[in-house]
Amino acid sequence: MQFLPKTIPEIQPEILPVNESPPELVTFDVGGMKCAGCAKAVERQLMQYSGVISACVNLAVEVATVECQPGAVDAEALAKKLTDNGFPSQSRLGENQREAEAATIERRRQEIRQQIKQLTIALILIILSGLGHVLGTKAPILSNIWFHWGLATLALLLPGRPIIVDGCRSLWRNAPNMNTLVALGAVTAYTASNAALLFPRMGWECFFDEPVMLLGFILLGKTLEQQARRRAASALQALIALQPAKARLVDFKIPSLDLRSQELPLNSTSEVYDPQYIEIPADRVRVGEWLQVLPGEKIPVDGEICEGKTTIDESMLTGESMPVLKQPGDTVAAGTINKSGAVVMRATRTGKETTVAQMVALVQAAQTRKAPIQNLADTVAGYFVYGVMGISLLTFLFWYFAGTHIWPSVLLGHDIGHGAMGIGHGVLGMGNELPIIHYQSPLLLSLKLAIAVLVIACPCALGLATPTAILVGSGIGAERGLLIRGGDVLERVHQLDTVVFDKTGTLTTGNLTLTDYLPIFQNSEWDLNSDINVGNKQDASSTIDGVSGRVDSKLLQIVATVESGACHPIAAAILLEAQQQGLPLLAAEDFCTEPGLGVSALVEGRRVFAGNAEWMKEQGVAVATQLSGSLQGKTAVYVASEGVLLGVIGLKDTLRPDAKAAVERLRGMGLRVMMLTGDTPSAAATTAQQLDLTAADVLAGVRPEGKARAIATLQAQGCKVAVVGDGINDAPALAQADVGIGLHCGTDVAVETAQIVLMRNALMDVVESIELGRATFNKIRQNLFWAFGYNTLGIPVAAGILLPATGILLSPAAAGAFMAFSSVSVVTNSLFLRRGFRA
User: Which residue, 87, 152, 580, 801, could crosslink 796 as a Cys pair with Cβ 3.0–4.6 Å?
Assistant: First the structure.
């Protein structure tokens, strides 16, 4: 099978230019949001502030992220504006992440405790109300109408007071929310029942139990919802808790600091223990400082082991349960746990630059980025409460002026009151008993239907549909080292049909080994003025068989010197080989790297080029066809100086152990798998054959700037493309792709360019990240379907659409129960996402 590099047409892909002054991001903790309408109101208020470019509010975690022009927004003033408008807010600028999160968690705990207290009171009132109907005349006090009036009054004044106050304030501020609907329903039911009690000649029944039941069900639903939201956010809280609080600062030059001891108790009298250290907050450690970490302690910052040997538990960062051996020269990440030995490390990244801090930032950003599918729900939520109040009014007008006249039977034979128990004050002369009423006033029936419409509508389900699913999905990803940047990425993951892999370092290990040394010059000394036998292609090619496999130390020394100015797996392999052979580097200067081609340098005063055949051609150096053929399936590095080919070195890479399995899994998911590489067609062909890729699925010999054009070409053909790369030479392609997946480079280039960052060096994580993205997006669709479906069906039923034909009528209390459990069902459905991703 012959693989040829495909020609990439010169088109202009839509690559966004890099903004030299990126927008500033400000995060706020926002309280007081009750439903999607509140979240929309907060977004609207943020967007009205001068200098704000965009705003995104997450109802589930009560966080707002504002993108603004640098230096144009006063975060504290913006927080005060939200607070003054009924949404207590606090900026996270300049705060310690752990302290800010701890304060938020404590605030939410207090809210839940307060809700549980209110719920307890409401449940006691419901029990007392129910006993009045169960015991009847056996307990005259419990069945007395004034007793039920007292229960309803207490329900409004105690557990219902915060709901009513917030609902009225929101309506006054022109930002009505769920509490507005509940308050209108409860107060209207209470007022109508008072009118029936005080003016019995109207013939109305009292339904004081309705506000009691309504408020009880609403508080029960809100409490369950809060608990479910806490569970959904638990993964992020665990990630934040990873960040260590303290660090042990030491002077590495202290001679008595002996790290060969595995245990260093504080009360030890051993001469190897030196107590000369200073304990400081981990966020105050500076780059370059020396830190001591004892067994069982967390690594305080990102750094490099300088002395000692140990094993590190990196499971919370990568999801890998097996501890990793670390010794001098190895890197360690903040938040990981030192398992076995005491070590001294040098800090390389501190504060917000550490791996765990960037993971937290990525996950938090992901939870505030919405999926485009949520836009419809947001648009509806902005007008939802107004629409429901309008429908409620129309319901009242229809039934009062038309419905009861068209279908007079609806006024007969219905026990309209508390559920199936017709609670009413009765007609004059019935005393204080609660007889069942079989005839309803048209005014009262219309009023009850209007109240039911108010309380059955659930804007919360619309507001929680997307953020709760993203909250759970991003939490699962964080536990497994899969960082998905937001809901918009999830939607694009769901649309993918093509996955394009980089080859070197992605499909292969990136640990190249030298297999061929082909020096073409015959002199043992590097004297370019001498008569070197490279005058024609035939002579050059004839030397191949004679010297193949023989190591020419001079050639290796020259190419290693040139490659010392590059940062690439090829350069690393050549330098390692030179080091193993004990070859010192030559004097060199003026290094120049041409991405995708090669590198050049002045070596002992002569310009030397090392790179691929295309690089040689640009330098006017001829490469024999036979020479290229002898390195079939390998990566060839040609070395030339002053137009003369000095030799060629062949390298070979090995396929990752999980590469083939990952490719097969992706194909099984219905995705097309392709390979995009700057390597030679023959080297690409070897890898492709191992993966069973066809020639049509391989793009070889593509330079870094051409990779973005290659992806744009696929997109122009209608493909939805994901690019998997190591984040070093693949940044343009990662940025151009619909979804960029950065492999094993969570703190470097991929953090800026990729939409999915994989913390582990495993290709199967690509499969798992796409599966997680698809599953999370499916949950979003299910939640939105339920939210829209519930309101679409529930509001007409509450409005009495089934009443004439079937006699089915929802009481306000029943409608309130449906409303409360609608939002609970959305959050619970999101939590079910964990079932498919158990460890």
Answer: 801
